[in-house]
Amino acid sequence: MNLYFACSLTGGRRDEGIYGVIVRHLEGLGHKVPTAHLAKPGVMELEKVTAADEIYARDIRWIEGCEALIAEVSTPSHGVGYEIGYALRLRKPVLCCYREGVTVSKMILGNDSPGLTVRNYRNENELPELVDEFLASLA
What we know:
This protein is of the alpha/beta class. About 45% of the residues lie in helices and about 15% in strands. It has 6 helices and 4 strands, in the order βαααβαβαβα. The protein has helices at about 15-30, 45-50, 50-65, 80-90, 105-110, 125-139, and strands spanning about 5, 70, 95-100, 115-120. Strands 1-2-3-4 form a 4-stranded parallel β-sheet, sandwiched between helices. The mean pLDDT is about 90.
């Protein structure tokens, strides 16, 4: 499957380790993740040399070409919110996952769009199963 992974960049990189767990799991299952580089340390240096309009066009193409979007939403991000909304508008299945106990936007929690799944997790060990359940629901 071609899966778009969304995570915070400019909003903060506190959860970078979690991003890596998700992306490694997806790639380990054989999925294509065009945004895998977003989970890596040093991504901010790579992204800052690319013009905003290029990033926008690239990411929109990737969302349009994906079969589903998986977003880690523990750290608030305007970009991730936009990507989620765009994917839902295209009727792409979306998984939003977040650390238990963090405050998540009510625009995510209150959204009853078909295809949107919102799940919390206690620790990174729960993430593979959470992701697997979402992927199984797409079959």
